[in-house]
TrEMBL record:
The lineage of its organism: Bacteria, Thermotogati, Deinococcota, Deinococci, Deinococcales. Gene3D superfamilies: FAD/NAD(P)-binding domain. It comes from Deinococcus arcticus. One of its GO terms (molecular function) is flavin adenine dinucleotide binding. InterPro entries: Auxin_biosynth/cation_transpt, FAD/NAD-bd_sf. It holds the Pfam family Pyr_redox_3. Keywords: Oxidoreductase. It comes from the Bacteria. This is K+ transport protein. The keyword Oxidoreductase applies. The keyword Oxidoreductase applies.
Length: 351
């Protein structure tokens, strides 16, 4: 029997593995990918982090290269692979967990490779699981190309002509800006999100936020509540691009009618391609446990700790602070959860 089963071998799972490897607990990481960093390799070609390398490392191994450079998605994937190898983290790749249920001594896990038992389970699959596209997208005419932002790779893969990007978070804004070089672009968005420049006075914005301790604002504080309501876009200012004539802005899209998408104000937009930058929804169908998720499917937790002894989550947005879901911030949460589980399993702390 394992002491701890970690579900998910991305940055959150690897950070947990680092601390578990020093805890003396018997653990194993389970991941559906075939190698570390698989999900990063599968993202769009031009993706770079908006945190510099010096703020993008996991515990025990700084991100390589110039500390001030912004790592590409392939550099992140290579770093995660090197991380897993450096610390020899015991991982079952190509082994997605199909079911977790409570057992006589903790939990029972089902994978394609068989059954496992564990005294504790740490879910580290992250927040980006199931791409969300509104149900009415089915009313878009079949000759219009549709894809979710998670399936976007490069401008040359899209048909020539007009592109409508629906959604203006960080991914939507970055994709829209890239497409302005090759396509006619319109971005449909609801209430505009605040924009933070990548650099302020020659300093990276995350150095500024770190100095102001805004990355450490607790989730339960008033400031944390205010920041969660309006999570900013980093670097890409769509309104500035609009003023320069590089793209068009439109109100929120609420329906589709053949080749036209209908905005909340009645405006109708036509495009050859629609990129749905509409985010993700949680998906935990394999968690066969009562009282773990709310009615929207999100984990019920406090700082990652659930009401079921031994079950915790890691890598969620605003799990404990603003930095919880960032590559360079997940390690702090991992340490807290692993140390808590050590105390529980050794009979020295809360369940």
């Amino acid at each position: 029997m394992l002491d701890v089963a970690v579900i998910g071998g991305g940055q959150a799972g690897l950070a947990a593995g680092y601390f578990l490897g020093r805890s003396g607990l018997n653990f194993r990481i389970f991941d559906g990918g075939l190698r570390p960093g698989a999900s990063w390799r599968d993202r769009y070609d031009s993706l770079v982090l908006f945190t510099p390398a010096k703020r993008s490392g996991l515990p025990g191994l700084p991100f390589p290269g110039d500390p001030a450079h912004y790592p590409t998605k392939d550099e992140v994937a290579a770093y995660l692979e090197a991380y897993a190898q450096t610390f020899e983290l015991p991982t079952e790749y190509g082994a997605p967990v199909r079911r977790v249920r409570q057992g006589p001594d903790g939990f029972e896990l089902t994978t394609p490779r068989g059954e496992w038992a564990a005294r504790a389970v740490l879910v580290a699959t992250g927040p980006f699981q199931t791409p969300f596209v509104p149900a009415w997208a089915q009313h878009v005419a079949p000759e219009v190309t549709q894809l979710h932002s998670s399936a976007y790779r490069r401008p040359s893969a899209l048909p020539a002509g007009r592109v409508l990007v629906v959604g203006a978070g960080n991914s939507g804004a970055q994709i829209a800006e890239e497409l302005t070089r090759t396509h006619s672009v319109t971005v449909a968005q609801g209430r505009p999100q605040p924009v933070l420049p990548q650099r302020v006075g020659g300093r990276d914005i995350f150095d500024v936020l770190g100095a102001l301790r805004l990355l450490d604002v607790p989730v339960g504080s008033l400031l944390g509540w205010l920041l969660r309501r309006r999570d900013p876009v980093i670097g890409t200012d769509l309104r500035r691009l609009n003023r320069r004539g590089q793209l068009q802005l439109a109100p929120r899209v609420v329906n589709a009618d053949g080749r036209r998408l209908v905005c909340v104000d009645g405006t109708r937009l036509e495009a050859e391609t629609v990129v749905w930058a509409t985010g993700f929804r949680p998906a935990y169908p394999w968690l066969d446990l009562e009282g773990v998720l709310d009615d929207r499917g999100w984990p019920l937790h406090h700082g990652g700790v659930t009401g079921i002894p031994g079950l915790s989550f890691l890598g969620l947005p605003w799990q404990r602070t603003r930095g919880s879901a960032l590559l360079g911030g997940v390690g702090r949460d991992a340490q807290v959860l692993v140390e808590r589980e050590m105390r529980r399993l050794k009979g020295q702390g809360p369940s």
